[in-house]
Write a structure and sequence with these properties.
It contains 10 helices and 16 strands. It is of the alpha/beta class. The chain folds into 2 domains: about 1-115 and about 290-320, Quinone Oxidoreductase, Chain A, domain 1 (Alpha-Beta Complex); about 120-260, Medium-chain alcohol dehydrogenases, catalytic domain (Quinone Oxidoreductase, Chain A, domain 1, Alpha-Beta Complex). The strands form 3 sheets. Strands 3, 5, 6, 7, 8, 15 and 16 form a 7-stranded mixed beta sheet that branches. Strands 11-10-9-12-13-14 form a 6-stranded parallel beta sheet, with helices on both faces. Helix 10 (about 305-310) links the parallel strand 15 and strand 16 (about 320). The two termini are about 10 Å apart. The relative contact order is 0.15.
Amino acid sequence: MKSYWLKPDSGKTAIEFRDVPTPEPGPGQILLKMHAAGMNRGELIVGHAVKAGGAAKAAGGEGAGEVAKLGQGVTAFKAGDRVMGRCSGAFAEYSLIDAREALAMPKNLSWEEAACVPLAFMVVHDMLIAQGKLKAGEWLLVTGISSGVGVSALQTAKALGAKVIGTSGSQEKLDKLKGMGLDVGIRTRAGDFADAVMKATGGKGANLVVNNVGGSVFPETIRALAHEGRHATIGYVDGVLKSEIDIEALHTKRLTLFGVSNRLRTPEQRAVTVRGFAADVLPLIAAGKIKPLVDRVFPFSEVPAAKDYMESNAQVGKIAVRM
């Protein structure tokens, strides 16, 4: 089958086309005939999914397709079912998915929209609901809000009744997101937004922060937090992995800091996230209250171009690949 692979190359990731055997589903697995896959910035950063000096890895971490074959013990699906979920090697004609990660596609979604749901929205469920405990009326601050996770966080927070502040280096992107409910947009790529957050929140600060950017803005996100605020670290696209922390603020404001990553989680722990997402967020998507924002769709033959487009930072929302 046709597939794409990522490999480390001089501190960056390179993508290559390969023709490999079609995999066979093992116990508890489903073989999907892929129709679309979502692209995610994290897998393009050396140190995330691709290890420096390590072997090549099948590209793609989420997608949507038809059930082609069931592994032993899988009874919840049948051949031909439309399924979406987190799966490895999604940029391929066929991909294996753990049945515990598989979700029936809502009928109102296109293949491309469904392919862009699993990773971003499950991460958002983890950050905003499972750990962040965001409530209606609270303030959410999202740095780098035009990213796939950022837009998904905006949409979910608004559906929960929260108010949202977002940062971006592009006023055009902020204006577009204001049409989707963004309450306050702050144009900046630097760590200089805490005063604006305090002004917007009447001096109280954000109840929850989603830090998409990394260490370069971490001190400022701490400054921007309210009393008993919560801070989620999801990525480090800036490449800054260390930062100072204001221990006095952590102590006096009774802050909660947590990270969101699937790298070290067990399949059972990941399955818990899937069930939580299916209960809390998927019904909002199926009802049309949240519509995944797909910025651009690339054909399968143009996966390298999709990678270049993502690295150009031009998109608002997600990038999809159509098989």
